What we know:
Layout: E1 2-11, H1 18-36, E2 40-48, H2 52-61, H3 65-82, E3 89-92, H4 96-111, E4 115-125, E5 130-132, E6 150-159, H5 165-174, E7 179-180, H6 182-192, E8 199-200, E9 202-204, E10 213-214, E11 217-222, H7 224-229, H8 231-234, H9 242-247, E12 251-256, H10 260-274, E13 281-285, E14 288-290, E15 293-294, H11 305-312, H12 314-324, E16 331-333, H13 335-365, H14 377-398, H15 402-423, H16 425-428, H17 435-456, H18 461-470, H19 483-486, H20 510-514, H21 545-549, E17 553-563, E18 571-576, E19 580-585, H22 593-596, E20 600-604, E21 610-612, E22 615-617, E23 620-621, E24 623-628, E25 631-636, E26 648-649
Parallel strand pairs: 1-2, 1-12, 2-3, 7-13, 12-13, 14-16
Antiparallel strand pairs: 4-5, 4-6, 6-8, 9-11, 10-11, 14-15, 17-18, 17-20, 17-26, 18-19, 20-23, 21-22, 24-25
Amino acid sequence: MTTYITTPIYYVNAQPHLGHAYTTIVADTYSRFMRLCGERVRLQTGTDEHGDKIAEAAAREGVSPREYVDRISALFRETWPQLTIEPENFIRTTDPGHIRTVQNILQQVYDQGDIYFGEYTGLYCKGCERFLTEKELEKGLCPDHQLPPDEISEQNYFFRMSRYQQQLIDHIQAHPEFITPERYRNEVLSFLSEPLEDLCISRPTSRLTWGISLPFDENFVTYVWFDALINYLSGLGYPDGPDFADFWAGAEHVIAKDILKPHAIFWPTMLLAMGAPLYQRLHVHGYWNVDETKMSKSIGNVVRPAELVEEYGVDTLRYFILREMSFGLDASFSSDGIVARQNSDLANDLGNLFSRSLAMLAKYVDSTVPAHSVDDETDVLLRKTATSMLASYRSHMKDFEFHRALRSVWELVAQANKYIVVNEPWTLAQDASQAGRLGSVLYNLAEALRLLALVLRPVMPTTSAKMAAGLGLAEDDACLKGLDTAGVWGLIPVGTRLQATPSLFPRMDQKKKQSAPAVARKSKTPPAQGKEKGGAAATENVITFDQFQQVELRVAEIVAAERVKKSDRLLKLTVMAPEQRTIVAGIAQSYSPDEVIGRQVIIVANLKPVRLMGIESQGMVLAAKIEENGASRLVLTAVSGPVAPGSTVA
Ligand code: MSP
């Protein structure tokens, strides 16, 4: 089976931004996913280079259109590898092959009588490069450009789009998956419930020369949408190239809602007129805003992919935008949002699972995947979670519900973290008779990580490769090759030698967060600057919000506790936060070891380690100090309900 996945070809009158990056990352992720499913995949993106807007942009810069389009097209082409996007084809509408295909199609459709010459008077929006209907206007303005359209009357060529209206309606009704998500399918059907007008497909050369000449009338160039949509065919060598035969049957287009009508109405009617099969699916996503505001050059909040990669790393960016946007709906990008996901989902949940599992495998079984023996119920639960994750991951990825697919992947991450806490490998390691059980637990952790490396490959290719390397696996090892064959529990080979691997995701510290240049940060109200009397602000020991932010507070679960020899004040605590650490706490006069095991407390997690009675203490447990009967007693802090160990407190 084949999959041909395309992005829109982007106009070269603007430089690549977050919106372009999202669509292209979606297409790349899906193409990697389909490859994992065993399909032959071809990913195509490119640039749309003809039309008024481009000619005007070139004129503004005082260069020829050719010079201008070459420069901006190269910017798009260079952006994709920075996002680990590897399209099989990058098409430009100024490519001679594309121009030939457009002219051949125009001639064919003209010869068969589906293009006619006529007079048209209409409301033309220069921004959209098309005539708008009265109905589309909002208060007399183009809804996208907020400008009044010009009334233009001119002789032009028209495509008999109306002729194919019923056929298109029938197709959409018979194929519910043709346009997804459903809200966009409904929008298109509602639009089609009114009679379609024919589509004006030419522009007189007196008004525009930067376009593809009509093969049957040199006084006209082709309307930019009729030209641009054909890229999906010309990029495959339509009509008789071998790639066309192989891939068109698996065609899937990804776009945002702004260009729904050309893709859901113009394009399929053009294909019907050509006698070419329709594409399989059109996937329509929403718009990215930045800090809840529309991205725009004039506001100055346009987010550039290269800056984001530099600031956050490519995989964090890929993960964030796929996890954060519900495909089909709008979403808002913010620096706070991406840092929060980096710290919680990536560094805390996934990163810690990986590093502490590998650390335990190194410490207890010499970095060699051990054999596993009998299952207990925690093993069964872990495996069940993995199996149901795989099923829902697959179906959500197929349906372009990336946020849901990732949510289910994180259910396995959370379950594996719990599995560590419940099984306490550090306790098993202290008892030689438990060596078999310890081996099983560590085997299961290595196996969960293998599956995670597998399913995360389409989303975070670099991280997945690092995980595979840490597990001592090559990316093309059988147990990482193909979702069908490798998506089964229990495939990591016993005896695999693990490799020391640096941590997957550093926690993003506040300093870095402060310096984020790529996005305007949400303003945080700092504490009042101490003028008024009596309030905390008036006291000497005021700290700023940023200073407070430097203290990393976390929820820690106490998994073991013992008295420190020769001290009646200190307990040695083993806590998970979420990684294992030792904290020496001065609470022995208020709590016995038994009383604290199993409690969740709040700790300062980024305190410089100190040695107390010869033991390194890696943090501080917070407790309230109360006075009772002339003596002081400590009461441990707690959270009001159980939470994942390591959760940040803010
Ligand atoms: N050239 C046409 C497309 C022709 S396809 C045959 C065009 N180009 S564009 O440069 O304006 O790109 C529009 C596409 O860019 C959207 O459909 C979407 O894929 C992406 N995005 C641009 N801004 C966006 C957001 N703010 N948010 C999400 N994606 C958006 O239209």
